Amino acid sequence: MFDLSGRTALVTGAGQNAGAGIARALAAQGAAVAVNDLVPERAEAVSKEITAGGGTAVPIAFDVTDLAAVRDGVGRARAEFDRHIDILVHNAGIPADFGQGQFRTLDPSRWRAPVEINLFGAMNCLSTVIDEMCDAGWGRIVQISSGSARTGSDQGLSLYGAAKSGVEGFIRHVSQEVAPFGVTANTLALGLQTNAAGEHTAAIAARIPTRRLGTPEDVGAAAVYLASPEASWMTGQTLNLNGGSVTT
C-alpha cells in the first residue's frame, strides 16, 4: 500500500521541520522529490539526506510568492525527472515576518506577508502544476494548514489564522473543480510541532491528550496517505493532525 513509485512530488518549504519530514516520507515510498526551500542550502541538505538513503531527490530553491520563480523551479524539476509533477505538497507558510502580535498593534505594512506565502504561494504553485495533473488523469494536492485557521486564540495569530483560513477555503473549491479529472485536493491542519524546546513547550505538550507535540514523521506519514493511490476517494477535506488537542 501507499506505493508512490513512478510519481514525482514537489514539496515546498521542505528544507526543515515538517516539510523535510514530508519530503523524506514521500521519497521513502518511492516518489522522486523536488525539495523546495527559500534557502538553497537547506534544500540541498535535505535532498542529499534523501539520496544518501537510497531515494531520489533534487534541490529546487525558489520563493513561492514569486510566480515567475515558481514556474522556473517547476520547469527545472520537470527537466530533472523527465516528467511532470504528480504530487504537490504546499508546506511553505512561515514568512520572515510572521506577523505575530495583537492585531490592533500591527502596522499595516506587516499584514501582507502571511497571506502572500500561504494563500498566493499556494495559488502560484497549484496553477503551475494543475493542468498537467488533469491532462494525465491523476494528481494529488496536499495543503498544509493549522488549527489556527478554525480556532481563535489570544496569542497574536490573527494574520496567520486568516491566511490559513483563506487557503483552506481555496483548496475546498479547487477540489470540486478537479475531482472529475482524477485529481484530489486536501488539507492537513497541524497542531503544535516539535520545532521549539524548553519548559514552555513541555508545559504545552502536557496539555495535549497524547502528551507530546507533533513530529516531522507524523506529518510525513499523513501526507503519504493523502498522496497515495489509496486516497483516491478522499478529497475536499481538512484533516486535523494535532494529537487530539482539538477534536471534530
From TrEMBL:
The keyword Protein transport does not apply. Signal peptide: none annotated. One of its GO terms (molecular function) is oxidoreductase activity. Keywords: Oxidoreductase. SUPFAM superfamilies: NAD(P)-binding Rossmann-fold domains. It holds the Pfam family adh_short_C2. Transmembrane segments: none annotated. Belongs to the short-chain dehydrogenases/reductases (SDR) family. This is 3-oxoacyl-[acyl-carrier protein] reductase. It comes from Kibdelosporangium aridum.
